[in-house]
Amino acid sequence: CKKFFKVSPANTNNFKIKLKKIIIKESIDVYIPINNDEIKNAINIKKEKNFRNIVIWSSEFNKSLLNKNEANKVLEKNGISTPEIFDPKKNYPDLKKWIIKPTYSEGSKLIKIVNTRYLKSVDYNFNNKYIIQSYFDPNKYNEITVDSFHDKKKNKTFSICRQRIEVKEGVCTKAKVYYDKKINLLSKKIAFITKQNGLICYQLFIDK
To answer: Taking the alpha carbons of 37, 39, 45, 51 in that order, is the dihedral positive or negative?
Structure first.
């Protein structure tokens, strides 16, 4: 990389303005967005007349999968197991744990761990702004973060796994980084299902 640019956060209008200036000034041919807000901006910029020729490693379909409920449906439909979604029609043990996440979010932002008793006492629909999934006990499962890069044109996938070893005040201070052939095959399957072109990050829960 020959140049670095300082820009505003991707969820601001200043980011979009700066990005367009960089694309024009540096004659950028290919843009690979990484996080959720970058993907949204990239898809919107691609619609503008002056940027229709730029190659964006994302798509409207990828943008739709930023919605965790939509992503869950697509993965389940294609045989990829995901955490159970809370169903108000079912009877669960009162102390069964659930994790509430905003439908659109990254990482562990604004998540909340609750039990069935709590969900019964509130409006668990939350106006579809949240997704409620079964909680995985870290004493029973290893949580693996997978960074997966897929080149759609060459049909090549490469993924790197990260397992937290030490966490202090919610921040990972030590981790195991490794390559796993089986997980890479899973990454390739997910890439095919989601029409991935570029980078995504996802979490796996594996029995200890």
So the answer is: positive
